[in-house]
TrEMBL record:
<feature type="transmembrane region" description="Helical">
    <location>
        <begin position="6"/>
        <end position="25"/>
    </location>
</feature>
<dbReference type="Pfam" id="PF02694">
    <property type="entry name" value="UPF0060"/>
</dbReference>
<keyword id="KW-0472">Membrane</keyword>
<protein>
    <submittedName>
        <fullName>YnfA family protein</fullName>
    </submittedName>
</protein>
<dbReference type="InterPro" id="IPR003844">
    <property type="entry name" value="UPF0060"/>
</dbReference>
<keyword id="KW-1133">Transmembrane helix</keyword>
<comment type="similarity">
    <text>Belongs to the UPF0060 family.</text>
</comment>
<feature type="transmembrane region" description="Helical">
    <location>
        <begin position="34"/>
        <end position="53"/>
    </location>
</feature>
<keyword id="KW-0812">Transmembrane</keyword>
<feature type="transmembrane region" description="Helical">
    <location>
        <begin position="59"/>
        <end position="81"/>
    </location>
</feature>
<dbReference type="InterPro" id="IPR037185">
    <property type="entry name" value="EmrE-like"/>
</dbReference>
<keyword id="KW-1003">Cell membrane</keyword>
<feature type="transmembrane region" description="Helical">
    <location>
        <begin position="88"/>
        <end position="107"/>
    </location>
</feature>
Length: 119
C-alpha cells in the first residue's frame, strides 16, 4: 500500500506542478489572460501540499525523487497537451531520471536497515 500511495501522490503532485507551470506559461507566453496565471498559482500551491503528504519525512529525499518524476511528467505533458515529439535522448534521459527517483525514494534508509536488523 505504501508504494501505491507514493506513486499516486507523485502523479498528483506532477499534475499540479506541471499543470500550474503550464497555466502560467500560457498566461505569460501565449497571452491567455490573468485567470490562467491565477489558476496556475493555485495549482502550484496545491503541489506543495500534495508533496507534503508523502509518507517519507525527509523533505530532501521526497523533493529529489520528485525531480525524476517531474522530468518524465513534463515530457509526457508536452506529448499529450502540446504535441511535443521527443527524441530518443528525451526517452533515455527520462528513463534514467525515473530509475534514479525510484532508487532514492524506495531504497532502504540507514534507520530502516538498523531497525530491521534489530527485529
Amino acid at each position: 500500500m505504501t508504494v501505491f500511495r507514493i506513486v499516486v501522490l507523485f502523479v498528483l503532485a506532477a499534475l499540479a506542478e506541471i499543470g500550474g507551470a503550464w497555466l502560467i506559461w500560457q498566461a505569460v507566453k501565449e497571452d491567455r489572460g490573468w485567470i490562467f496565471a491565477v489558476l496556475g498559482v493555485m495549482a502550484l500551491g496545491a503541489y506543495g501540499f500534495i508533496a507534503a503528504l508523502q509518507p517519507d519525512a525527509n523533505f530532501g529525499r521526497v523533493l529529489a525523487s520528485y525531480g525524476g518524476i517531474f522530468i518524465a511528467g513534463s515530457l509526457a505533458w508536452g506529448i499529450i497537451v502540446d504535441g511535443f515529439k521527443p527524441t530518443v535522448w528525451d526517452w533515455v534521459g527520462s528513463s534514467v531520471a525515473l530509475v534514479g527517483a525510484a532508487i532514492v525514494i524506495l531504497a532502504p534508509t540507514a534507520s530502516s536497515t538498523a531497525s530491521e536488523a534489530v527485529a
